[in-house]
Amino acid sequence: MRKFTTTELDRMRDTQEDAMQDMGVVQVYTPVIRYGEEQEAWVERSTPIPVGINMTEGSENRREDMVVEVIDGEVRLPIGTEIDERDRIRVYQRFGQDISDLVISIVGTPQEGASGLLCDFVVVNPGESP
What we know:
Blueprint: H1 6-18, E1 22-29, E2 32-34, E3 37-39, E4 42-44, E5 49-62, E6 68-77, E7 88-94, E8 97-112, E9 117-124
């Protein structure tokens, strides 16, 4: 099987990124210690990135601790995006239009393909932890 050339990969990645019609900001999981206990917290990166949100009819995912999570959709991210399964993304624009913030939490390990990253997510309601 022939490998993709650098030019082919660059074109695939450009096409994938051009198809991401949403914008968001990664919120990095950064716990803080309060009163001797670790508290969940997230710090927002300053650089917005294009994302592609695909909402789905909730599917189930069973975590290692046997808790069942309902997956609300998939998010596509550009190659090279640093993201972890505890991070979140604050989506502030869908299809080029400003929206009320939609905060999504990554579920599981992000999967890297030839043209981008793909992650399952759950929607986080304000004031709630994933």
